[in-house]
Amino acid sequence: MQSYKQSALVLIDMQRCMSQASSWPRNNPEAEDNMARLLTAWRANNQTVIHVRHLSSDPASGFRPGQSGAEFQARFYPLPHEHVADKHVTDAFSGSGLEAYLRSQSIRELVVAGVSTNYSVEATVRSAGCLGFITTVVSDACFTFARLDLNKKICSAEKIHLMSLSNLDGEYAQVLSTDAVLKS
Fold first, then answer.
1. What is the predicted pLDDT for the residue at 90?
2. What whole-number distance in Å separates Cα of residue 71 and Cα of residue 63?
3. Residue 140 dihedral angles phi and psi, to the nearest 5°
4. Which of 6, 27, 64, 164 is the Cys-Cys partner for 117 at CB 3.0 to 4.6 Å?
5. What does the pLDDT look like over 65-118, one tens digit per residue?
6. 5 in the Ramachandran plot: left (φ > 0), alpha (ψ -120 to 50) or beta?
7. Cα separation values, 9 from 73, 152, 174, Å
8. Domain total in the chain
9. Please, is 139 exposed, middle or buried when counting C-beta atoms within 10 Å of its C-beta (0-12, 13-18, 19+)?
C-alpha cells in the first residue's frame, strides 16, 4: 500500500449547487463528512490540496459563474495557499492547467474525492491514470445520482457508483475507503 504523505488531495466539484436537493436520489450520504475528514488530515499535515471547480457556460447550469451555485460549499472553501483548478468539462485535466501545476510541484500521487462518481471523478481519474499519476479514489468520499439507462429504466445511484469505481479500480487507480487512506 502506498504512503499518502506526498499525495495531493483533489476535491472535485464541491460547489453549492451539488448540495442542493436533486430530483434524483443519491448515494453515500456520508460522502461530504468523509471528504471533510480527508481535507482536515491533509491540512493538518501541510499537504497539497487541490480544489477543482466546474464553471459552465450554459446559462441554465447551476455551475454558471456569478451565481451562488457555482461557489464552493462553506466547509470546502479553499485556503489562500490551496490551488484551484477551473474546468469547463467533466475532466479536470482538460484545459485547466492541472497537469502543469502537478508537474511543477513534483506531485505524482493523487487522492481523489468528490462528485459525481460517474462524471467528473471518473473522467478525471481516467486522465490521471493515462498521464502516469498514481491515483487513489476514495470510494466513500464520492457520490452520484440515480439516472435513466438507455432502456429508460432507472439505475440506482449506488449501482452507478459501484460500476464507475469498478471501471477505475486496477486499471486507472486503486479504490480505497476514507479509513484506509487515513491509516496509511
1. 95
2. 8
3. -95, 10
4. 164
5. 988 889 999 999 999 999 999 999 999 999 999 999 999 999 999 999 999 999
6. alpha
7. 17, 36, 14
8. 1
9. buried
